[in-house]
C-alpha cells in the first residue's frame, strides 16, 4: 500500500538504519540519464571517439560508471550518516563508480514525467502494487540475466521476491515486506479489565475487545481503522480477504471487479458493527496512517492495523510504551478455524530501462551490495549496540529480504539474540500469519474508491453494504478496470 510504505520510510528509523547498512532500504541508487552526470564524469568516461578509454570490454570494474543514488531526505540525519558509510564501502570496492546523491522518492504522480523527460534514477524504490503497472509501461528494466548470475538468489525470500517476477522474468529486487497485523496496547486492556484475546482470534474477539476498552467520555477508542485516504480502503481489504473475497479477477483478457461479493458484504457489515454496535471507532474517524498510528502511540486507541514494525517503532521510541505493552497479533479470522489473512506488501528496488548496461549492472551491484554479507551483520551489531546505549529499541521487520530459515537468516537472529533491546514477536504469530498479495491492477484506485465507501459507512448509520459495494464496483470497473487489457 503506497501511503503506508511512504510514511513508513520516514518513520521507521530503526529499520532504516538496518537497511542503510544492509542495502535493503529505501535509499535507492539512481542513474546519470537525463543530463545528471557531471561534465567531468562524462569526459573521464570517453575519449574523442565516444568509446571507453583504457577499459577492457569484459571488466566493468575498469570502466567509469556514474550512478545517482537516492539519498535520504534532510530530516533523516541518521539515515544519511549510515548511507554515507555504505557509499564509502561501495566505492572502496568499486573506485571506478561515481555516485551522485539525490533525495527523490518514487511517486505515482511524478514517475511518468521523470521517465518521459529521461530524468528517472538508475534505480528507485517502489511498492508491491506497482509491478504490473511499471512493467506494462516499460518503466522498469528486465534484470533476469543479472538475477540469474546472482549467487544468493536462492536465499532471497520467495514470498516477497515473487511479486516482481512476471511471466518468468525478473523486474525488481525485494527490500523488505510486511503482512498487515494488529497491534494491541496490552496496558489499556489491563486497565479496563479486558481479557487479552487468544492469538488465534476471530472477528468476534476483536469486536468484544474493542468494545470493552472503548471509553467515549475520555476520548478513547477500542480500535482505529484508518478512515481517510487510500489507507481506509487498504485497511478494510484485510477483512475482505479474511471473508474469502477478492478485489478483482481476470476473465477473457479483461479485469473484472469482484469485491462486491458476499464476502465483501460480510466485511463491510463487520465495520458497521465496530462503528455503530460497539461504538469502538474514534469519533474523529477520518484518520490516515500517521493519525491512527499516532493515536495508538498516545494511548488514545487500543488497536491499530498496519505493518508491525513502523507502528511499534513509533510506540516504543517516540511514545511511552514498553515492549511488554505492545502485542503483535495476526489479523483476526472471520470465524474460528478460518485464515488470519493480511494484505501482503513491501518495498522493492527497480532499475531504469533507459540506463546503460553498465549502469544497470552497477545499480544491481549497489542494490545487493550488503545483502548476505558479514559486513552487514557487523553494521547491524553496531546499530543495536548504539541503540542500546541511547536507550532505544530496535524493531525488526516480520518479513525481510532473506528467507528466515536460510543460513543468513540464522546468523541475523544470532545477532538479535545478543541484545535485550530488540523487540520480540510472539513465537506463535508466524504459524498463524496468512499473506495475500495486493491486487496488481489499479490497486490504489480501488483503495481510493473504497475509502469513500468507508467514510460514508462511518458517517451515516443504516447504510446498505450491498448497495454501497455495487456502486463502488461499478465506478471502479468503468473508470479504471475497463481501460486495462490483459494479454
UniProtKB/TrEMBL annotation:
Name of the protein: ABC transporter substrate-binding protein
Superkingdom of the organism of origin: Bacteria
Leader sequence residues: 1-19
PANTHER family hit by this protein: ARABINOSE-BINDING PROTEIN-RELATED, SUGAR-BINDING LIPOPROTEIN
Sequence segments annotated as region (Disordered): 31-57
InterPro entries: Bact_solute-bd_prot1, SBP
Organism this protein belongs to: Paenibacillus donghaensis
Keywords linked to the UniProt accession: Signal
Segments of skewed composition (Polar residues): 43-54
Pfam family, one: SBP_bac_1
Amino acid at each position: 500500500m503506497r501511503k503506508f510504505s511512504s510514511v513508513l520510510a520516514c518513520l521507521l528509523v530503526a529499520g532504516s538504519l538496518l537497511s542503510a547498512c544492509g542495502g535493503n532500504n529505501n535509499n535507492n541508487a539512481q542513474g546519470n540519464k537525463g543530463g545528471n552526470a557531471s561534465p567531468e564524469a562524462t569526459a573521464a568516461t570517453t575519449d574523442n571517439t565516444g568509446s571507453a578509454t583504457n577499459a577492457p570490454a569484459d571488466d566493468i570494474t575498469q570502466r567509469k560508471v556514474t550512478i545517482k543514488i537516492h539519498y535520504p531526505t534532510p530530516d533523516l540525519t541518521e539515515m544519511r550518516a549510515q548511507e554515507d558509510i555504505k557509499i564509502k564501502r561501495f566505492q572502496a570496492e568499486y573506485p571506478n563508480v561515481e555516485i551522485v546523491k539525490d533525495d527523490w522518492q518514487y511517486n505515482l504522480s511524478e514517475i511518468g514525467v521523470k521517465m518521459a523527460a529521461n530524468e528517472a534514477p538508475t534505480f528507485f524504490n517502489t511498492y508491491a502494487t506497482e509491478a504490473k503497472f511499471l512493467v506494462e509501461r516499460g518503466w522498469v528494466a528486465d534484470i533476469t540475466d543479472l538475477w540469474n548470475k546472482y549467487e544468493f538468489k536462492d536465499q532471497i525470500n520467495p514470498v516477497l521476491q515473487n511479486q516482481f517476477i512476471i511471466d518468468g522474468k525478473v523486474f525488481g529486487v525485494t527490500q523488505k515486506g510486511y503482512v498487515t497485523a494488529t497491534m494491541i496496547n496490552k496496558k489499556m486492556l489491563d486497565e479496563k479489565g479486558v481479557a487479552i484475546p487468544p492469538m488465534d482470534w476471530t472477528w468476534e474477539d476483536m469486536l468484544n475487545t474493542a468494545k470493552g476498552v472503548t471509553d467515549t467520555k475520555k476520548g478513547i477508542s477500542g480500535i482505529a481503522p484508518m478512515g481517510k485516504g487510500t489507507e481506509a480502503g487498504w485497511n478494510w481489504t484485510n477483512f475482505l480477504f479474511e471473508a474469502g473475497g477478492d478485489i478483482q479477477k481476470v476473465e477473457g483478457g479483461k479485469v473484472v471487479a469482484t469485491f462486491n461479493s458476499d464476502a465483501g458484504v460480510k466485511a463491510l457489515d463487520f465495520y458497521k458493527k465496530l462503528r455503530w454496535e460497539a461504538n469502538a471507532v474514534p469519533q474523529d474517524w477520518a484518520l490516515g496512517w500517521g493519525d491512527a498510528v499516532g493515536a495508538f502511540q498516545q494511548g488514545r486507541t487500543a488497536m491499530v492495523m498496519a505493518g508491525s514494525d513502523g507502528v511499534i517503532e513509533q510506540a516504543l521510541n517516540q511514545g511511552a510504551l514498553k515492549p511488554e505493552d505492545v502485542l503483535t497479533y495476526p489479523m483476526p479470522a472471520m470465524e474460528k478455524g478460518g485464515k488470519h489473512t493480511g494484505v501482503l506488501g513491501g518495498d522493492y528496488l527497480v532499475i531504469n530501462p533507459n540506463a546503460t548496461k553498465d549502469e544497470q549492472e552497477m545499480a544491481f551491484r549497489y542494490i545487493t551490495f550488503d545483502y548476505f554479507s558479514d559486513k552487514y551483520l557487523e553494521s547491524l551489531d553496531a546499530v543495536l549496540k548504539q541503540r542500546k546505549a541511547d536507550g532505544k529499541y530496535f524493531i525488526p521487520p516480520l518479513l525481510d529480504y532473506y528467507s528466515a530459515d536460510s543460513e543468513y537468516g540464522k546468523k541475523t537472529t544470532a545477532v538479535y539474540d545478543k541484545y535485550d533491546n530488540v523487540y520480540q514477536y510472539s513465537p506463535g504469530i508466524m504459524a498463524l500469519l496468512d499473506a495475500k498479495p495486493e491486487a496488481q491492477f489499479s490497486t490504489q484506485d480501488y483503495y481510493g474508491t473504497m475509502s469513500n465507501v468507508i467514510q460514508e459507512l462511518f458517517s451515516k448509520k443504516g447504510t446498505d453494504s450491498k448497495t454501497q459495494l455495487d456502486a463502488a464496483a461499478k465506478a471502479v470497473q468503468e473508470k479504471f478496470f475497463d481501460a486495462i487489457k490483459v494479454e
